Every structure is written in structure tokens, then in C-alpha cells.
């Protein structure tokens, strides 16, 4: 093929992958994030009172999810690499959907702890598996854009999910269940249904894609194989899972991700509770649905910021400052939120923080994939996600404890700012100490 024909095939192949796979995997991620954060909507809307939870106990219940998640994260991702994404991602979804359904009937604090732990076990491997799966379908040149489209599901989960959760909670009394129990039931069923569909809908790798033309399939396979060989030549031993796990660079990425996730989950689990506290703090009153809408406010601008920032990263080639700059903005803005003197000002500052967090995250994941391939990619990405998700346990627990100890969220948000400042510093440090190259430059060296 000549250059024009090759470019045409490239564009059509990427377009088909974008439309066929990304929306469906993003839907899976939407359900995933909604199920794990459903407790944040249940807490201030009856669950905390019904089960007698303190802020620290609520934080522990939110965070214990990540203990089970972390334990099985790396084995799950290696299993995905061995058995194929279609089977493994479908299995994960159905399993966590069944566990999520059981929250409908939870009746004690210990029961809540147990189910949150088991939900983490069931979900283990989904997110890094989805990242790995999409990374195996697109060349580096297009990866940041594809991951950004996938990551849009996360802020949109709150934009759509918060009002949806509020509507389900307002169905209080249906089937003689409290509203927060109906909400858990309503967000669990889609996981089971979509998990079953995923078994039949997903395709493991480009070579198996009957929905691509022969030319598109050949171009994708050839291009991806070239990049794998290029990474193998420059990885300096990072081609094996054990070498990836021992890599200092992988651990720096893991710490950077830890700070970003700390900010993400501190807000995700406690923002509805902070909004619920507006009545005592500012003398305002909002009903359940209004609180759901207010919770969603920061995340719609965050979705736009994510898309636009990632589009810039795609054009320029992802650099460490694409992570460092938004992490720094988040670090500076989040402590200011608790200093505001009105609900509108508080939400405005939290919106800046949400935009910063979601601008950093999809661009972050474009970097590790440049250095790892094959089983090493499965192990390395899982390790980064595992260490990062320790923050999923630490953030809500420390936030709850600090709130109980001080009576406000000022200290917890200062801690969030410090963690995000660490991520910004690591991003800039990696940029200074490594030779950053665009995906095109990396690929060119393979020839």
C-alpha cells in the first residue's frame, strides 16, 4: 500500500476500534465505579443511621474494599493475560454484581465490612485489565486518546449516577426496603447483565476481530507487533513480570498514582457527606435529589477538562507535565474548599480539584505502557494499580478518622493536598531524569 492507502486503513481501523470496543468497556467501567462508590450515596441517606456508623467506621467500610482488591490484583491481571480479556472481564463483572446485590440486605456493621471486602475481591483486576485490554488494541500514537475516551466514564458515573442513586433512594418503602437498600439493588443488577453480554461481545485481540477488514486487521497486528519488538529492545530486562515488579521506574509510577487516587477517593466517598453537612454549616436545606444533583456538579466540567487535556496530550505526545500540572492544581485547590463561606464557593473549588484529578489520570496510564510489554505489562500495570489503590483504603479511613478527631474536613483536605503534591513532584522529577519521547519517536527507532 502507498502512504495514502496506509493512512486510510489506519484511520478506519482506529475508528472501528473506538466505536466497537471503547463505549462498551467504558460502560463496564461506569458500572464498576458506580458499584464501588454506591456506599457514598447510601451513607448520608440512611445507611449510617440505620447501621450506627461513625465517620471512621464509614471510612473503614469504604476503604476495606481495597484490601481484597489489592490482594488479588496482580494474580487477576496475569490470569487475564493467560485466559483472555473476554472471559476474564465477563467473569469479574458477574461475580461483583452478585456480591453487590447482597448489600440490599446488609444488617450490621460487620456484615457491611465483610461485603465491602468481598466486593473488592470480586472486582480485583477489572480496571488494570480494562487498561491492558485497550492498550493491546491500539498503537501508542492513539493510546492516550482511546484511554481518555474510556476514562470519561468515571466522572460521568457521578454526573449520571448521583441523580440516579438519589431517585432510587427516593423510592423508599418499595418492597418494604429502605431507600438506600433499593439503591444498592438497582446499581447491582446492571453488572450481572452487562457481564453476561461481555462474554459474547468482546474480542480478545485484533487478529480475532472479524468486524475489521483484512487490511485493517493486518495493519493493526503489524503495527502492534513492531511496537512490542521496539519495547523489547529498549526495555533492558523489563520484559518479564518479576523484572517489572522490581523496576524502580514502575514503583515511582505506583507512588505517583497513589497520590492521584488518594485525591480521587477522598472526594468520591466523602463529597456527598460534605454536601449533607451544608445544612449545619451554612443553614441551607436540600432534599435527596437536590443533593444528588449538587454531587454531580463538579464532575461534568471534569469530563470536559479530561477530554480537552487528553486531546492536547495526544497531539503533543504525553509528557510528564501532562500529569504534573493538573496534580499541582489539585494539590493547591483542594484544601481551599473547606475555607469557603458558601455552598456555591465550596463546590466551585471542589470542581477545580475534580477537573485536575481527571485531567491527570488518563494521561498517567499512557506512560507505563511505553516501557512494559507482554506479561511484564500485565504485572507492571497491576502493581501500579495495586499500590495506587492502597490509597483507596487509606484515603477514606484517614479522612473519616481526621473528621472524627477534629470535627471538620479541613485537616482531611489538607492531607489530600499533600498527597497530590507528592504526585506532582514525582511527575516533574520523572520528566527531568528521563528522556521523554513521543510515541512516534519510540516507534521510529524500531525501524
From TrEMBL:
Membrane topology: Multi-pass membrane protein
Pfam families: MFS_1
GO CC annotation: membrane
PROSITE patterns hit by this protein: MFS
Residue ranges constituting the Major facilitator superfamily (MFS) profile domain according to the UniProt record: 21-435
InterPro entries listed in its UniProt record: MFS, MFS_dom, MFS_trans_sf
Keywords recorded for this protein, A-Z: Membrane, Transmembrane, Transmembrane helix, Transport
Localisation per UniProt entry: Membrane
Domain of life of the source: Bacteria
Regions that span the bilayer: 21-43, 55-76, 88-107, 113-134, 146-170, 182-202, 250-276, 288-309, 321-338, 344-365, 377-399, 411-430
SUPFAM superfamilies in UniProt: MFS general substrate transporter (SSF103473)
Molecular function, one GO term: transmembrane transporter activity
Name of this protein: Major facilitator transporter
Lineage of origin: Bacteria, Pseudomonadati, Pseudomonadota, Betaproteobacteria, Burkholderiales
Amino acid at each position: 500500500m502507498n502512504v495514502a492507502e496506509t493512512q486510510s486503513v489506519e484511520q478506519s481501523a482506529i475508528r472501528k476500534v473506538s466505536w466497537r470496543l471503547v463505549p462498551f468497556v467504558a460502560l463496564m467501567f461506569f458500572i464498576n465505579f458506580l458499584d464501588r462508590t454506591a456506599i457514598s450515596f447510601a451513607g448520608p441517606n440512611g445507611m449510617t443511621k440505620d447501621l450506627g456508623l461513625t465517620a471512621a467506621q464509614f471510612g473503614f467500610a469504604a476503604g476495606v474494599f481495597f484490601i481484597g482488591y489489592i490482594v488479588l490484583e496482580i494474580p487477576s491481571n496475569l490470569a487475564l493475560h493467560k485466559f483472555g480479556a473476554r472471559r476474564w472481564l465477563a467473569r469479574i463483572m458477574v461475580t461483583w454484581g452478585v456480591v453487590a446485590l447482597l448489600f440490599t440486605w446488609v444488617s450490621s456493621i460487620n456484615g457491611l465490612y465483610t461485603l465491602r471486602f468481598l466486593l473488592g475481591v470480586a472486582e480485583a483486576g477489572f480496571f488494570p485489565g480494562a487498561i491492558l485490554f485497550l492498550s493491546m488494541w491500539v498503537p501508542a500514537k492513539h493510546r492516550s486518546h482511546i484511554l481518555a475516551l474510556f476514562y470519561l466514564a468515571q466522572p460521568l458515573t457521578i454526573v449520571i449516577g448521583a441523580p440516579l442513586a438519589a431517585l432510587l433512594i427516593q423510592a423508599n418503602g418499595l418492597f418494604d426496603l429502605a431507600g438506600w437498600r433499593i439503591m444498592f439493588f438497582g446499581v447491582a443488577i446492571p453488572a450481572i447483565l452487562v457481564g453476561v453480554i461481555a462474554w459474547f461481545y468482546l474480542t480478545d485481540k485484533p487478529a480475532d476481530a472479524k468486524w475489521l477488514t483484512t487490511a485493517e486487521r493486518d495493519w493493526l497486528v503489524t503495527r502492534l507487533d513492531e511496537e512490542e519488538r521496539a519495547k523489547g529492545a529498549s526495555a533492558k530486562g523489563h520484559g518479564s513480570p518479576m523484572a517489572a515488579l522490581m523496576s524502580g521506574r514502575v514503583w515511582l509510577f505506583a507512588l505517583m498514582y497513589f497520590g492521584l487516587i488518594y485525591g480521587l477517593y477522598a472526594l468520591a466517598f466523602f463529597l456527598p457527606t460534605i454536601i449533607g453537612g451544608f445544612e449545619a454549616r451554612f443553614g441551607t436545606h436540600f432534599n435527596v435529589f437536590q443533593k444528588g444533583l449538587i454531587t454531580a456538579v463538579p464532575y461534568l466540567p471534569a469530563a470536559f477538562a479530561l477530554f480537552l487535556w487528553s486531546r492536547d496530550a495526544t497531539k503533543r505526545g504525553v509528557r510528564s507535565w501532562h500529569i504534573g500540572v493538573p496534580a499541582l492544581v489539585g494539590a493547591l485547590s483542594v484544601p481551599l474548599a473547606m475555607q469557603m463561606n458558601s455552598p456555591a464557593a465550596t463546590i466551585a473549588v471542589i470542581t477545580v480539584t475534580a477537573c485536575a484529578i481527571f485531567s491527570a489520570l488518563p494521561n498517567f496510564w499512557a506512560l507505563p505502557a511505553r516501557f512494559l510489554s507482554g506479561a511484564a505489562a500485565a504485572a507492571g500495570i497491576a502493581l501500579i494499580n495495586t499500590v495506587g489503590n492502597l490509597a483507596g483504603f487509606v484515603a477514606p479511613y484517614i479522612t473519616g478518622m481526621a473528621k472524627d478527631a477534629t470535627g471538620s474536613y479541613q485537616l482531611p483536605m489538607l492531607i489530600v493536598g499533600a498527597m497530590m503534591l507528592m504526585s506532582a513532584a514525582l511527575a516533574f522529577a520523572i520528566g527531568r531524569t528521563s528522556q521523554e519521547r513521543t510515541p512516534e519517536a519510540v516507534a521510529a527507532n524500531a525501524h
